[in-house]
Amino acid sequence: MPSTREEGLIVTFGEMLIDFVPNESGVSLAESPGFLKAPGGAPANVAIAVTRLGGRSAFVGKLGGDEFGHMLAGILRENGVDDKGVTFDEGARTALAFVTLRADGDREFMFYRNPSADMLLRPDELNLELIRSAKVFHYGSISLITEPCRSAHLKAMEVAKESGALLSYDPNLREPLWPSPEEARTQIMSIWDKAEIIKVSDVELEFLTESKTIGDESAMSLWHPNLKLLLVTLGEDGCRYYTKKFHGAVETFNVNAVDTTGAGDSFIGAFLSKIVDDQSVLEDEKKLRKVLRFANACGAITTTKKGAIPALPSDSEALSFLKDNLKRSNNPFKSTKLRFLYCSNC
Question: Quick one: 342 exposed, middle or buried, by C-beta within 10 A (0-12, 13-18, 19+)?
């Protein structure tokens, strides 16, 4: 079937859920006096990150036919995300995640999804017309854990690729959701050679390579012939990038991080929003570094508020942040070394 791609549309596939974020950092779930209800789920976060920055996106996934599910669909629409790819399951609940915030803003998760609606999406429920219209198709690995969602994921990838979409993959490892580390590693790598853009964290790099060494050699061990860009986020050390012709690093920004949830999604959403209509960025190192600096800024801003989606920045916020940091870096009385505390598993 001929492609009906619309210019600039980024379609994300996978889970959307409710994050319950403690209103006090540095305490266990049991000790927390209360929680902030925040919409989340990595693929949905990315879709909203794109529209907050003025781009076009759509989300494909399944929600429970409960109040939370309809609330989440409403949040997609309120943020300008096309929700024609969303289906509802009246017999399953929307997934919930309780998040433990450490004092440094990093997180641990406890999930309630046995099974949740996102796990029950079937291939025959996919909006193939919407998927065929994608210029970029972005996904994670949580949708690979169980059937029938795994088959739906593979079908959606196949249709998107046949229609000419650029495939973008952020594994977004959540090890407690998998039966075993070995199964997680096997399934995450089972679709590795399909993606043209891959983003991993330093923790995911260690997990996938089974090596404690974080460097160019370990990163390049994940390279495959179809890959155009490999991104590795390195916590407070920024991010590294690898292409067929060049590689390098981009520094981070200094912020007071209160919650790193969604920082990596903000980063990749910002990046995709800048390259969806100009893929020459992937072959021009100067352009790539500029885009990655913008993506780093978006990730940094996201850590300054609790919750993922509520914290995603607008284009004007990101540009203002960059302008302010440029002024600081040009001030001889202030440090020019900029740091941004990325979530180590975003």
Answer: buried
Phi-psi region of 164 (alpha: psi -120 to 50; beta: other; left: phi over 0): left
Amino acid at residue number 94 = T
Work out the number of other CB atoms within 10 angstroms of the CB of residue 142.
26
What are the pLDDT digits (tens) for 249-272?
999 898 988 888 899 999 999 999
Torsion of CA 302, 306, 310, 313, to 10 degrees: -20
What are the CA-CA distances from residue 135 to residues 57, 242, 256 (Å)?
Answer: 10, 22, 35
What is the phi/psi pair of residue 73, to 5°? -60, -40
Distance CA 343, CA 327 (A): 26
User: Tokens 């529209």, residue?
Assistant: 51
Q: How far apart are CA 141 and CA 173, in angstroms?
A: 7
User: What is the value of pTM for the model shown?
Assistant: 0.90
